């Protein structure tokens, strides 16, 4: 047989957690067709990769991203594929760009604007979930997308940014939109209960909506209601949903916020996950290997302030009584999830992508307010900044305890994710370094430096485990008959280089990446072959 690609003399980490072994790999027609020893190299393949001394693993699966928001302007997917990522799960935190209708299209455009590429025309010429991914499938892009549909987007399509309890008729409409998306290939439903409109949803509404998932053996991935003082309650809400509907639950970016909760609460929560699984409830969690998170600047506001959408939020900031109530909630630390300024601190909140005023980029709120000479009226100054920028800015917050992060990432029920979006080193702004360095950082930090995981266990967390959770039947393993999504890296050189101060830097040590059987990265350079696809759950 003549192979399309032959990988020779590599150390194979197959994704199962088993010890590595030496072998050659033969790839043909997008599949791994042979694992063993091939003697006559020159005549047996179109491309030959000398992997001597290198690890050969399944391509990394990023279980939680927002790559669907930027794949159109960044089809090269450089920030992900240079990390060894071959597939990204998209549509997380309740945010998906479909389904759309005449009622929710402008609301979605305004709400997602901090994450959308500013100088690109999206067209907005789709309605259904299937329409959007049909459009994406026609792009010439580099990696695979694994789509979820967002509960937030579905809720906006039915009732906008209303805090009112959902009626039976509205729930029926939501179930209809969810089932359509599942029929069109969605791998599950995501929710963002720390954001509007997801945070306006009662538990009973979520239980009712997610009943649809069981029929399709689909996952419910959720940014839970609280990661601070009420973390246990938020986790129990997810466990209840998983138990009542007998569906797999994925708790997104599990973290403990609030210094008084550090060091102990994470262990209580992880124990609850273990106990739930002992009772037959399929629950998992994921986490990125950074202590700082990233979100929109509007997350500093109380949930009620965003009712009705971005435009109404901006109006409230200009109405004296509303503005005073918003300030009172901030001062009383009544902002959801312990994301409030009081909990995090002005010096720990850094603006990182500010198209409205680039002079703010890379500066903390404390620095910006001090430069304005308004420290004595800091909260008014911050609300003025949100108003000035029309809420169209992302910010990095430092709030996690490193030992808590370690406990989550090394736990058997956790997977590793970036929570990032697609970009490249030429983009404007200062994005979170996780967009460029998550997976090399994870491998370098937890295997090489801290020695908390073996290479085999670490690779399992970013390959076969997410594939299993998603019910991907032919990816995530080095196995004959499986799709050839493969990452080849140097264990001695793998390292992230992206920092908070200088995030737009690609990692080192990822030497080759193969996507759907096509060589995509060679000698740390991206090739013309853009062989990515939108995967559909069928």
Number of strands: 21
Name of the CATH first level of the largest domain: Alpha Beta
Fraction in helix: 25-40%
CATH topology of the largest domain: TIM Barrel
The biggest beta sheet reads: 9 strands, mixed
The number of helices is 17
Based on secondary structure, the structural category is alpha/beta
Enumerate the spans where pLDDT stays under 50 for 5 or more consecutive residues. none
> Which second-level CATH architecture of the largest domain applies?
Alpha-Beta Barrel
Mean of residue pLDDT?
Answer: 93
CATH superfamily of the largest domain: Metal-dependent hydrolases
Q: What percentage of amino acids are in beta strands? A: 15-25%
Number of domains: 2
Radius of gyration: 23 Å
Characterization of this structure:
- The protein has 538 residues and is α/β, with parallel strands linked by helices.
- The chain folds into two domains: 60-294 and 399-473, Alpha-Beta Barrel (TIM Barrel), CATH 3.20.20; 302-396, no CATH class.
- The protein is built from 17 helices and 21 strands.
- The chain has helices at 78-81, 105-111, 129-137, 151-159, 168-183, 203-215, 231-245, 265-278, 310-316, 320-331, 341-344, 365-371, 378-388, 402-409, 434-449, 455-461, 464-470; strands spanning 3-12, 21-28, 31-36, 45-50, 55-58, 60-62, 85-90, 144-147, 149-150, 188-192, 219-223, 249-251, 283-287, 292-296, 349-353, 394-398, 414-416, 486-489, 510-515, 518-522, 525-526.
- The strands form four sheets. Strands 1, 2, 3, 4, 5, 18, 19, 20 and 21 form a nine-stranded mixed β-sheet that branches. A six-stranded parallel β-sheet has the order 9-10-11-12-13-17, sandwiched between helices.
- Strand 2 (21-28) and strand 3 (31-36) form a beta hairpin.
- The relative contact order is 0.17.
- The model has no long low-confidence stretch (mean pLDDT 93).
């Amino acid at each position: 047989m003549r192979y399309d690609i032959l990988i020779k003399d590599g150390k194979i980490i197959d994704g199962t957690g088993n010890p590595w072994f030496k072998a050659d790999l033969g790839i043909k027609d997008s599949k791994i067709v042979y694992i063993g020893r091939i003697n006559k190299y020159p005549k047996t393949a179109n491309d030959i990769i000398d992997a001597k001394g290198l690890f050969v693993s399944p391509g990394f699966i990023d279980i939680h991203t927002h790559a669907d928001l930027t794949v159109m302007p960044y089809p090269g997917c450089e920030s992900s594929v240079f990390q060894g990522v071959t597939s990204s799960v998209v549509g997380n935190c309740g945010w998906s760009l479909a389904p759309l209708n005449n009622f929710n299209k402008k609301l979605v455009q305004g709400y997602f604007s901090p994450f959308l590429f500013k100088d690109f025309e999206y067209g907005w010429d789709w309605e259904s979930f299937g329409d959007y991914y049909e459009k994406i499938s026609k792009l010439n892009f580099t990696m695979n997308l694994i789509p979820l549909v967002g509960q937030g987007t579905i809720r906006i399509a039915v009732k906008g940014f209303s805090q009112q309890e959902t009626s039976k008729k509205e729930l029926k409409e939501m179930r209809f939109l969810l089932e359509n998306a599942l029929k069109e290939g969605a791998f599950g439903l995501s929710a963002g209960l720390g954001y509007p409109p997801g945070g306006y949803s009662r538990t009973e509404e979520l239980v009712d909506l997610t009943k649809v998932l069981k029929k399709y053996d689909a996952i419910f991935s959720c940014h839970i209601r609280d990661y601070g003082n009420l973390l246990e309650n938020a986790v129990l809400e997810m466990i209840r949903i998983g138990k009542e509907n007998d569906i797999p639950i994925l708790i997104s970016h599990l973290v403990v916020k609030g210094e008084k909760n550090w060091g102990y609460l994470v262990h209580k929560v992880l124990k609850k996950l273990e106990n739930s699984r002992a009772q037959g409830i399929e629950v998992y969690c994921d986490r990125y290997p950074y202590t700082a998170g990233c979100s929109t600047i509007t997350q500093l506001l109380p949930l009620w302030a965003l009712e009705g959408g971005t435009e109404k939020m901006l109006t409230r900031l200009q109405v004296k009584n509303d503005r005073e109530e918003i300030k009172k909630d901030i001062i009383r630390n009544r902002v959801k999830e312990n994301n409030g300024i009081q909990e995090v601190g002005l010096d720990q909140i850094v603006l990182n992508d500010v198209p409205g005023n680039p002079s703010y980029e890379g500066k903390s709120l404390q620095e910006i307010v001090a430069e304005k000479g308004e420290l004595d009226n800091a909260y008014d100054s911050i609300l003025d900044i949100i108003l000035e920028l029309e809420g169209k800015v992302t910010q990095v917050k430092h709030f996690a305890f490193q030992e808590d992060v370690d406990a989550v990432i090394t736990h058997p029920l956790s997977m590793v994710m970036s929570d990032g979006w697609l970009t490249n080193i030429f983009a404007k702004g200062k994005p979170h370094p996780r967009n460029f360095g998550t997976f090399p950082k994870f491998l370098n930090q937890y295997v090489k430096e801290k020695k908390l995981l073996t290479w085999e266990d670490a690779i399992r967390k970013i390959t076969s485990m997410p594939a299993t959770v998603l019910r991907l039947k032919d990816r995530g393993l080095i196995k004959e008959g499986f799709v050839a999504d493969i990452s080849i890296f140097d264990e001695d050189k793998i390292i992230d280089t992206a920092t908070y101060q200088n995030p737009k830097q690609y990692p080192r040590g990822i030497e080759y990446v193969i996507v759907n059987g096509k060589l995509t990265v060679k000698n740390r350079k991206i090739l013309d072959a853009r062989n990515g696809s939108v995967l559909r759950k069928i």
